[in-house]
Amino acid sequence: MEAEVEIEKVKKSFGPIKALKEVSLTIRKNEFFSLLGPSGCGKTTLLRIIAGLEFPDEGVVRLGGRVVNDVPPHKRGVGLVFQGTAVFPHMTVYDNIAFGLKMRGYKKDEIDEKIHKMLEIMNMPFEIYAKKRVDQLSGGERQRVEIARSLIIEPNVLLLDEPLGPLDLKIRQKMQIELKRLQKRVGTTFIYVTHDQGEALTMSDRIAVMQRGEVQQVGTPEEIYLRPANRFVAEFIGETNLIEGRVSGDNTFAADGLRSVILSSSSNPENIMGDAVLSIRPEKILVGDESAGLVNRFEGVVEEKIYMGAYAVLKVSIDDKMALTVQVQPAEKVNGIRVGQRIQVGWSPEDATVVKPT
Amino acid sequence: MSEKILEKIRHRRKAQLLLILSLPLAFYIIYFLIPFIAAVGVSVGLILPREVQLQRGEVITLRYYMDAINPIFLKVLGKSLYIAVATTVLCLVLGYPLAYYVAFKGGRYRNVLILLVIVPFWVTFLLRAYAMLSLLSPEGVLNSFLINTGIISKPLFLIYNENAVLLGMVYGYLPFTVLPLYASLEKISRVYVEAAKVLGASPVRAFLHVTLPLSKPGLVAGTLLTFIPSAGEFIIPEFLGGPNEFFVGNMIYSAFIEAQNWNWGASIATIYIAIVIAGIMLYLKYVGEELRI
Amino acid sequence: MRRLGDRILLAYTIMLFVFLYTPIVSMALVSFNSGRGILKWESFTLEWYTKALSNEKILNALFNSAWVAVTVTLLAIAMALLAAIAVGRYQFRFKLALNTGLFLAIVVPEIVEALTLMLFFLWIGSPFGASTVIIGHLVWFPIVYVVIRARMAGMPRVYEEAARVLGANELQTFFKITLPLLLPGIITGGLLIFTWSWDSFIKTQFTRGPGFETLPIYIWNSVGARGRGLSPEVNAIATLSLIISIALAYLYTRFRGR
């Protein structure tokens, strides 16, 4: 796979704040790559460094193999869609999209033709939208104009900084699918910054999870969800049960006052020994008769029962030592279960993952 | 490599900043700061006049201040501050209900009302002082109207006294008070007042505990915008005051222009500026607001 | 009860507007009165206007006021823009000092500013005339700065950054993005300093040379202290100036909301 963007040991501080502590990443051509992490993790800073809006204190940035550290933003040929929106409020849709082309000296009829095509891709008929003022557009339309404006200059990389943040949930979900489709269609490399793990999982080919200026894990959505590299990733991506304890040589995991948990060979990809954290996804835990025959089986007390529509959530306490969150689907399965009742819970060894404690 | 580039960028930004800032900064320093400092210099005998300095053999002296601080000056200063404070208080008391009405009760006439508030603010101060004069003077519109309708037979002497000056000041500065008051009242969301009422506050209490405190920035700005210029007022006393209505502004003027005594003029101007700035600082400290732009 | 309160407030508001407008309206009325004095209303006439507008001195003062105000406005906008960009877009140590300093130039009473400036011109031996008047008015450029700065503070950085990424260099970004977005602030600030310059009496009086008259100076000189020289001709020219001010005030309300 050819590399489109290479980040090599990049560091960046703002005064006393270390925004990036030696980050290295390689983003391949034509992939949909997400930078995922809580606010303040450095993802936006990294994006701005790639765009040339910030300059790294140390390290190298390559775009298409070329070192671009000293290239100003207007000569990098990347697209950037901003958090919130940065559609120019004093221009029409047409002028917004034409801006990059005008800067590159295109002629009027070329610009016209390209905008026609681009608006078609964006599902915004030229006749209706071209002359509209920005304040006449909805949030979703503005976002599309901004994406169109960035794509029309045919960048090798399109950087998107939480572009769907301000939109309503429904439109956001629709736009997620549209964006993914668009990316496949135009074949541009997308680097997508988000703090929404669901969004990253849905859209990305690969994800880099970041925290406190460091990359915690890079992988496909499946890898990151099912095999988190550390406690932070396990906790940040989806819901999970975390149990602190120790891994012994015989592939078992022991937590204080509990019977040992059996691990499978795939549960411990990094071969961690000693102190560790066990992560089990709530939907991987089975209850009642369904748990019969599982090697990791415990008895506990139902403390809470929450109806969520498509599924139900049980909070189960095991000997007051450990509280497990269990997701049961469909929700009707918990109809017979009462709060306070004793219940069996269990999971198969390969459904749990051992991660480093920090 | 990165460090070199960062260094280059930093240099570039610095050069740009220098280029951008040099013109306004130089202008500001040369034509505002230096004259100001020079005037303070003159007040302590520096700079002007040179011959006197050499004769005297001393470079800095406080004797112009000693000379300036005499009973007459103190009386004029007291009177000026009194008029300025009175003007400010009257403008606030008179202007607040007006600003309140325009901000909250204007309804569909609001835009017209706003324009009515703004227009006097934009009309030359000198012109409005002149208008007041042409209304109130013995040969003015009011007197001729009253004589023509037979209400009086001889013109009333409405001007050339302290009350006329105060009236003229209030008339002149009222727009300076109302505009910032209106601007801050306009920003207050009615939701707060409604919340207070829902929580059981009477309209009066809702006003006292919600609207009034929230309009504090407007009150502060209105106070400053009125007090600062009225403390140095020069035109109104010249137009509407009698020979006894003589304020610091007029005194500085006559020291400089009529007596041509710059040391004297500069020293009273310095004292006066110091008092005004100290007053502003104390006031801002008292109301707990920052000096901000 | 509430209705009554509103009514009292309305009556009060009307009273205050009457107070604010009676003098200027009566001044304007006198300018249309054909009586020689201002003692008695006779009939409507434009005589005073034709008289005023054929008066060489008045025309000269009008012309001076206009070109000084226009020059001051343009130069003040340029300087205010530069200062606003420096403060808004660059990092430097004495930023706060600069901000406070510029604020000072607005709050110092006009008479003090005017006299210290006059002293300064005398000191450096600069000849008094139109240029000293313009410099004097330009010392007010911080008022434009304040308005533009406020506009800039409310303007997200992203527009400029977006333009950069889309391929515009720094100058193109400034002219195509920053300047148009600041325009409402530039116009309101410009209108403010235009009026300040147009209205300036004290500063002009102390920085002008003999023979250089603007409209306020003309009015002052012909009225004289304590109103000895009230005349309908002055009323006419004052009313004209009033109309210009009202037009500017109207423009200001238009742009303030934008």
UniProtKB/TrEMBL annotation, chain A:
Keyword ATP-binding: yes
A single MF term (Gene Ontology): ATP binding
Domain ABC transporter: 5-237
Catalytic activity, reaction form: tungstate(in) + ATP + H2O = tungstate(out) + ADP + phosphate + H(+)
Record-level GO cellular component terms: ATP-binding cassette (ABC) transporter complex
SMART domains, per the entry: AAA
Keywords attached to this entry: ATP-binding, Nucleotide-binding, Transport
Matches recorded under Pfam families: ABC_tran, TOBE_2
PROSITE patterns registered for this protein in UniProt: ABC_TRANSPORTER_1, ABC_TRANSPORTER_2
KW Transport (keyword) present: yes
Protein EC: 7.3.2.6
Protein family (similarity comment): Belongs to the ABC transporter superfamily. Sulfate/tungstate importer (TC 3.A.1.6) family.
Subunit structure: The complex is composed of two ATP-binding proteins (WtpC), two transmembrane proteins (WtpB) and a solute-binding protein (WtpA).
Protein's UniProt name: Molybdate/tungstate import ATP-binding protein WtpC
Lineage: Archaea, Nitrososphaerota, Candidatus Caldarchaeales, Candidatus Caldarchaeaceae, Candidatus Caldarchaeum
From TrEMBL, chain B:
PROSITE patterns xrefs: ABC_TM1 (PS50928)
Pfam families: BPD_transp_1 (PF00528)
Keyword Membrane among UniProt keywords: yes
Membrane topology: Multi-pass membrane protein
SUPFAM superfamilies noted in UniProt: MetI-like
Domain spans labelled ABC transmembrane type-1: 77-285
GO BP terms in the entry: transmembrane transport
Keyword Lipoprotein: no
CDD domains: TM_PBP2 (cd06261)
Annotated localization: Cell membrane
Family of the protein in this entry: Belongs to the binding-protein-dependent transport system permease family. CysTW subfamily.
Protein known as: ABC transporter permease
Species lineage: Archaea, Nitrososphaerota, Candidatus Caldarchaeales, Candidatus Caldarchaeaceae, Candidatus Caldarchaeum
Automatic annotation (TrEMBL), chain C:
Family the UniProt entry places it in: Belongs to the binding-protein-dependent transport system permease family. CysTW subfamily.
BP GO annotations: transmembrane transport
PROSITE patterns in alphabetical order: ABC_TM1
Record organism: Caldiarchaeum subterraneum
Keywords, ordered alphabetically: Cell membrane, Membrane, Transmembrane, Transmembrane helix, Transport
Protein's UniProt name: ABC transporter permease
Topology class, membrane: Multi-pass membrane protein
TM region positions: 9-32, 66-90, 102-124, 130-148, 179-198, 234-253
Principal subcellular localization: membrane
Keyword Transport: yes
GO cellular component, one term: plasma membrane
Domain of life assignment: Archaea
Cellular localization per UniProt: Cell membrane
Positions of the ABC transmembrane type-1 domain: 62-252
Presence of the UniProt keyword Metal-binding in the record: no
InterPro entries in the cross-refs: Bact_Polyamine_Transport, MetI-like, MetI-like_sf
